């Protein structure tokens, strides 16, 4: 058997690191085109999401054909609409029940910042209880904006290293939210 010398490897690639990096890229590509979103819709943004799933916009074109209404089978938590403070523990529990790796998209002004409801009973952004990966602006956002946000999630998934979720930074981030 012949051995591969590091000298024979392309510039900038060192031994087995090449294979691990390539494997990360293949896994990222496969994950990004087969995401299962879990819609957590509470108000008008949910109606826009329904339009996004319809035939005119068709989120299924991006590999998200199957909506998952079980947190244990979902990859992407799509929070849409106003989240009351009483609902915050439920949202956090849904997030915790999702398997790693998981991503979160805050859709609309209410999920992102509380929207026009600056009151004692409305959560002023879901990032107070769970980490958010992508924010989609609008009140309510158009289906095109939701599709753009989903594509940004896909880009994040494609480029994410398989080792990121085990990093100290990620564990510290979850610790800030009281999540183990």
Briefly say what this structure is.
NDH-1 is composed of 14 different subunits. Subunits NuoB, C, D, E, F, and G constitute the peripheral sector of the complex. With 180 residues, the protein is α/β, with parallel strands linked by helices.
CATH architectural category: 3-Layer(aba) Sandwich
Please count the helical segments. Answer: 6
Uncertain residue ranges: 1-10
**Total discrete domains:** 1
Q: By helix and strand content, what is the structural category?
A: alpha/beta
Distance between the termini: 46 Å
Oligomer: single chain
Instruction: State the total count of DSSP E strands.
Output: 4
Q: How much is the radius of gyration in Å?
A: 19 Å
Question: What's the CATH topology name?
Answer: Rossmann fold
Largest sheet: number of strands, sense, barrel closure: 4 strands, parallel
Helical proportion, percent range: 25-40%
The best one-word shape is: globular
Along the chain, the helix and strand elements come as HEHEHEHEHH
Strand numbers in spatial order across the main sheet: 1-2-3-4
Could you report the average pLDDT, rounded to the nearest whole number?
84
**What is the percentage of strand-forming residues?**
5-15%
**CATH classification class:** Alpha Beta
EC number: 7.1.1.-
Keywords: 4Fe-4S, Cell membrane, Iron, Iron-sulfur, Membrane, Metal-binding, NAD, Oxidoreductase, Quinone, Translocase, Transport
Cofactor: [4Fe-4S] cluster
Family: Belongs to the complex I 20 kDa subunit family.
């Amino acid at each position: 058997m012949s051995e591969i010398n590091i000298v024979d490897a392309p510039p900038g690639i060192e031994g087995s690191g090449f294979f691990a990096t390539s494997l990360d890229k293949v896994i990222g590509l496969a994950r990004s085109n087969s995401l299962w979103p879990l819609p957590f819709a509470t108000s008008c943004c949910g109606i826009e999401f329904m339009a996004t799933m319809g035939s005119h916009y068709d989120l299924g074109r991006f590999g998200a054909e199957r909506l998952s209404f079980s947190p244990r089978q979902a990859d992407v938590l799509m929070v849409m609409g106003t989240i009351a403070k009483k609902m915050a523990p439920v949202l956090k529990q849904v997030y915790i029940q999702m398997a790693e790796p998981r991503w979160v998209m805050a859709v609309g002004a209410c999920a992102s910042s509380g929207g026009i409801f600056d009151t004692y009973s409305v959560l002023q952004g879901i990032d107070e209880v769970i980490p958010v990966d992508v924010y989609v602006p609008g009140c309510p956002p158009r289906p095109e904006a939701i599709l753009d946000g989903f594509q940004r999630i896909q880009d994040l998934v494609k480029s994410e290293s398989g080792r990121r979720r085990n990093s100290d930074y990620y564990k510290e981030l979850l610790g800030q939210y009281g999540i183990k």
